[in-house]
Amino acid sequence: MALALAARIVLAATLVFAATAKLRDREQVRAHMVELLGARAAGLAAVAVPVVELVLAFMLVAWWTSAVPGIAAAVVLGAFTVLVVRAQVRRVPCPCFGGGASARPAGPAAVVRNGVLIAEAVLATGDPRGASLLASVVLIAGLGALTVLVVRAAA
């Protein structure tokens, strides 16, 4: 229960952070998307990805007891992981946390980071009702610290 609550909150915060970073640096994100997806898809992807991230974050918080947001987040993060691997193969930067996050090509740490986020999405499918406040706060701090570490390591 507390773990599901912590996963929802940490994953929602991570998605908001990622979307905000992309929206702040739209031109660089679009440039990275061109390298990754080609000119035709880049414009749409540069707009759609942060919108999807914000919608998922909202769903994780608003649909508190439903497993659907966690499932949706796992599916979307799985698709994002495919793009991260594509970026790694093409040796281009990943616009995962904004265009200025890194000029280095995506690497294995980005795949690990997405694996951690997918694991959080799976945990978020649990029912958070009845979660202990103390256990939730401790788990949010621990899961949040882990998420910050993997996000920074992949940047």
What do you see in this structure?
With 155 residues, the protein is mainly α. The chain contains 6 helices and no strands. The longest helix is centred in the first third of the chain and has 24 residues. The mean pLDDT is 89.
Short description:
This protein has 155 residues and is an all-alpha fold. It is 77% helix and 0% strand.
Overall pLDDT, averaged?
A: 89
Helical fraction: over 70%
For the terminal residues, how far apart are their CA atoms? 31 Å
SSE sequence, one letter per element: HHHHHH
Can you count the helices? 6
Q: What proportion strand? A: under 5%
Major sheet summary line: none
List the topology elements:
Elements: H1 2-24, H2 26-37, H3 39-62, H4 68-90, H5 108-123, H6 133-154
Key attributes of the depicted protein:
about 160 residues, mainly alpha, about 75% helix, about 0% strand
